[in-house]
Known about the structure:
Layout: H1 2-17, H2 31-43, H3 45-54, H4 67-75, H5 77-88, E1 95-98, E2 101-104, H6 105-116
Antiparallel strand pairs: 1-2
Helix pairs in contact: 1-4, 1-6, 3-5, 5-6
Amino acid sequence: MSAFRKAVWTAIAVAVMLFSAPQAATADCGTEEIIPKLLPLLGDSDFDACQQATGYVFYPFAGLPTESQMKDLCTSEVCQSLLTTVVDADLPRCDIEYAGTIYNINAIIEQYADQCLPSSQ
Length: 121
């Protein structure tokens, strides 16, 4: 489960990183589709609050969260609120490549939401 959670938060961090490296998007997932969906996240108060609550920095991406940060990411109310916002952004189902790894951001976020958000979400 912790490897899964790390993959999820890495995918979110990678998605946010598209702002600084739009060339990382594959042909399957153009920045014109992703940027408008992710731009509001950087201004969302939960974005900064989640980072402060967990000590994990999404942007700029500097590596995977620690085990302690992962626990906090899954249990923090502000992080759950941020994840809800990400889910509601309805990201396109497409692949994004970052550092040689292909991520389907939407699929990973949906799986994470199933695991970590209350079932009423």
